[in-house]
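Example 3.
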Amino acid sequence: MFWNEKAECMGKEEKEELQLKRLQETVKLAYENVEFYKKRFDEAGIKPEDIKTLKDIEKIPFTTKSDLREAYPLGLLAVPREEIVEVHASSGTTGKPTVTAYTQNDLDIWGECIARGLKMAGAEKEYIIQNAYGYGLFTGGFGIHHGGNKMGAITIPISAGNTQRQLDTMIDFQSDILTCTPSYAMYLGESREKAGISLEDINLKAGIHGAEMWTDEMRKRIEASLGIKTYNIYGLTEVMGPGVAQECEYQNGMHIQDDQFYPEIINPENGETLDYGEKGELVLTSLTKTGMPIIRFRTKDLTSLIGEKCECGRTTVRMTRITGRSDDMLKIKGVMVFPSQIEKALLKIKGISPNYMIHVTRPDILDEVEVKVEASKELFFDEMKEMEKVEKQIQASIRSETGLRVDVTICEPESLPRSEGKAVRVIDERNFE
Amino acid sequence: MAVKQISIFIENKEGRLKKAINTLAQENINIRALSIADTTKYGILRLIVSDNEKAIEALEKDGFIVKENDVIILAIPDKPNGLNSTLEVFDEKGINLEYLYAFVSNKTDEAIVVMRLEDMEKAIEALKDSDVKILDDKDIKEL
């Protein structure tokens, strides 16, 4: 039931004592070895000794993605370079990539976090894990791999893509657990149905999916089309990759491995710390990483924390589903919109496929938004006025969710691009220069 | 008596109409009548074909969305006022017309009109006393 019962079910006081001790060590390590942190601390007029309680963490300045970019590639190491054994990096789609460097001990901790998650998903040592996260600089593939190794399970490093081979592997190896992005899981489910492979031919029991936002509706589709129970997993390149947090069987918030990472929620506008239950930006501090400790990293991910003990018995703090990012919200006609809001609006309509695309343009001086959705049997009527009614219904749903009037286009089924990694939901062709 | 028509959702992009027609040709399905209603983004392709079941199966296999609907098919005297007098029957009874399309056959002197009305039963009832002939599946096979 638990991979590490002591760490996962620790009492509050004991946990806080451990967190404080580890926080103090991390701050000291960073201050003494990383020029960036020393400078930041000095500017803020604080010394490692000033961290006397967990609450004192609020005195420490935040670290941002751009800080990491400036330190590219290995400017934030807290140990001699020869102790580093692996690096991972973000894709760099919005600028220079951010790199995280790991010592062997850091990798062991990563594996430990993943192993805890695998166990939450019901894995046993004899399980076969079909790891369809991409292997490479992206942290998904190797992250899960380290966890599979730690557990002693068989990990198939199949990586993302090559859908036919994924299906063959599922059948031939009778894989127990599928790990990949939710959009790829959905695609694999659709492909299984299309290939006429029955659920009896495969043996999947669970799916561990993350690295992008997904909804309950998507979860239901994946679970039905692959005959599995799915577990939302969270992580990010800058902190550790997957395994920072994951859902247990109750699917009610993701358990943060809070003996390894200290979570805070802040108001993204003013940086103020918020309480449990309040929605804001997640800030993470690594408590045990030594290769590249990270202190008060602003994740930009919007969520809230749950402090109560979970039904599963774990006492770790949980985080709710990520509903958006404080930085990639779309500003359309002056209105702030998250793609997830549009997704939510679409899923309220019966028969709509969770594959959609938001296309933002500015043909002249005003923004225009086209939302493309795929038609289905329930959404297709022989009469034009019925079709127009469907479009209007979709428009109205989006309008009530976002306040935006959008153009709706119904496309043929499976005509929108499917992705093997993170789904691309937004095409923004506006030129802001 | 109502006849089954199939409707296909066609995205307004290159080659989709041809693809649908080609799918039917591959299965040796004969198209008796055809109409397209279109917008700038998509169209509805409506067809009377020789074998609905086979057509639907083939089209769905190729990824199309297909629906089967009731229509009535009428043989109307191929002369001035032919269609008008038929429409008047519906008008009098207050039966709304959703759409229609017409074609001529070289097997008959009459014009063939496919109609979808708001209330199909009422429409068939209304035509009982007129001289308009309602065609059934068998008649259509012979066209």
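The CA atoms of residues 370 and 407 of chain A lie 5 Å apart. Chain A touches chain B through 17 residues (CB under 8 Å).
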